[in-house]
Write a structure and sequence with these properties.
By secondary structure, the chain is mainly alpha-helical. Helices cover about 50% and strands about 5% of the residues. The strands form 4 sheets. Strands 3-6-7 form a 3-stranded antiparallel beta sheet. Strands 1-2 form a two-stranded antiparallel sheet. Helix 1 (about 1-25) packs across helix 18 (about 395-415), helix 2 packs antiparallel against helix 3 and helix 17 (about 380-395) runs antiparallel to helix 18 (about 395-415). The two termini are about 15 Å apart. It binds alpha-D-glucopyranose. Alpha-D-glucopyranose binds near residues 44 and 176.
Length: about 450
């Protein structure tokens, strides 16, 4: 009760602080995640941002999504970054050179990979704020792009029609240095030149050139060796002109990520609901593939850890380094109830995910846990939002209410940061972070009954 009153008293301040951040980060067509560090448009960021913006300015929320869709590739892919224009950013655009692919849009520079498919969720949440007629108009406007995107995910990322879609870069899953991916990266992606840099400690020298550690302490970011490994995969993708058959040929690095697939399942449902509302039947083949994902997802369950884990695409080996990704199975909403109960028990366990300011991105009893380091310990507001939705899916209402309040309390204690120390709610990473501001607004204005 005490925490409830405190949060409610502060929420007026929080709302004005959050809407100021969204205004300051407004770039006209879209909202950048954070000034300096993230000056472009990111895919899942814009979805979370639109979910908050719908409470402030519905037209701006719609523009945020429409502007994402302008980056859609001819094959249907939605890229994780659409680059800002202007000379200042030419090096960022050059890094990706999306124009090497015949599928890239002609006049817009983008990355060549995607991010978790959250768009249908944002479309539905915006739809909730519209009248039935406006909602149908809105859905009709975005529907063709959404279908094309989900079809692309299956066509390119589930080449053997096994049900789960694969990801080819840690940046695609949005949790860049999460333990299962980093463990795989160290196993397969440390080329000889990166090993030499590591051996000679040249990474310390290179660290000085990093943009992300200019204003943020380096222990809050991931290591330079890991970053080089990420760039080396990205260069390989670019060399193959982002052509998936060339990329998968000879590559050992493809993962069926648990968070990405959980988000896909939920968004498949949203897409089906959108189709139903506007009475345009989705094609049967796509529906068949969507069903298969739900079925196959449960193969990611591991009885020894009582968690869902990502899986190596080639060997089907489960990657058992623990992370908060397992909790997104609740968000998928299609997993058996006894598995959902097992996850909630871990969410409530003080030795696992139940810290003072939950939900840590890695449980505290994992050897990987580092409370200050990016996706290896800190709590992230977008993940909390997804878990709250997941708890609601299964009727864990008390737990959802508790997490909503502790999330709002974390944000009001420290301000809108990129991530937080899960033990004391200190803000970490970039300040004035857009999705934190947007989701603070959404959580504050949507009490759970
Ligand atoms: C970081 C995050 C990623 C996010 C991006 C822009 O790379 O890991 O999830 O989309 O920043 O905010």
């Amino acid at each position: 009760m005490r925490i409830y009153l405190r949060v409610m008293l502060r929420s007026t301040n929080l709302l004005s602080e959050a809407s100021n951040i969204l205004n300051n980060n407004n770039q006209g067509l879209y909202t950048m995640p954070a000034a300096d560090l993230y000056p472009h448009q990111w895919l899942w960021d814009s979805c979370f941002i639109a979910i908050g913006l719908r409470h402030l300015d519905i037209n701006r929320a719609q523009t945020e999504i429409l502007s994402l869709l302008r980056g859609q590739w001819l094959n249907g892919m939605l890229p994780n970054i659409i680059f800002s224009t202007g000379d200042k950013y030419s090096a960022d655009r050059e890094l990706w050179r999306s124009w090497l692919s015949p599928n890239a849009p002609a006049k817009i520079a983008t990355s060549g990979i995607t991010q978790p498919p959250m768009v249908a969720e944002a479309v539905i949440k915006i739809g909730e704020k519209l009248s039935p007629l406006e909602r149908r108009i809105w859905y009709r406007r975005v529907y063709p792009s959404l279908v094309k995107y989900h079809e692309w995910l299956y066509a390119e990322r589930d080449p053997h029609q096994e049900g789960l879609v694969l990801s080819i870069h840690p940046w695609e899953i949005g949790m860049d240095n999460t333990p299962p991916w980093i463990a795989e990266l160290s196993e397969h992606q440390l080329n000889s030149w990166i090993r030499t840099i590591k051996k000679l400690h040249l990474d310390n020298l290179i660290s000085h050139m990093r943009r992300d550690t200019k204003n943020i302490p380096s222990f809050e970011r991931f290591g330079t060796v890991e970053l080089l490994a990420m760039f080396s995969i990205q260069w390989r993708l670019r060399r193959k002109a982002y052509d998936i058959s060339r990329i998968l040929d000879h590559s050992l690095f493809a993962i069926e990520d648990v968070a990405f697939n959980a988000i896909l399942i939920r968004n498949n449902h949203h897409l089906q609901n959108i189709a139903k509302t506007i009475r345009i039947p989705l094609n049967q083949e796509l529906i068949k593939r969507m069903k298969k994902t739900e079925h196959e997802f449960n193969r990611l369950w591991d009885t020894t850890t009582s968690q869902y884990h990502s899986r190596d695409f080639i060997t089907h080996r489960l990657l058992k380094e623990e992370s908060v990704a397992t909790m997104l199975a609740l968000y998928a909403g299609t997993v058996p109830i006894n598995y959902a109960h097992a996850l909630v028990r871990q969410l409530e366990d003080k030795n696992s995910f139940n810290t003072n300011c939950p939900v840590p991105s890695v449980p505290i009893n994992s050897p990987w846990y580092k409370p200050l380091n990016y996706w290896q310990g800190p709590s992230w507001i977008n993940i909390n939002w997804l878990i709250i939705e997941g708890l609601k899916n299964y009727g864990f209402i008390d737990q959802a209410k508790k997490l909503r309040l502790s999330t709002l309390s974390t944000i009001s204690n420290s301000g809108c940061y990129e991530y937080y120390n899960p033990e004391n709610s200190n803000g970490l990473g970039a300040s004035n972070f857009s999705w934190t501001a947007a989701l603070a607004i959404d959580l504050a204005l949507c009490p759970i009954n």
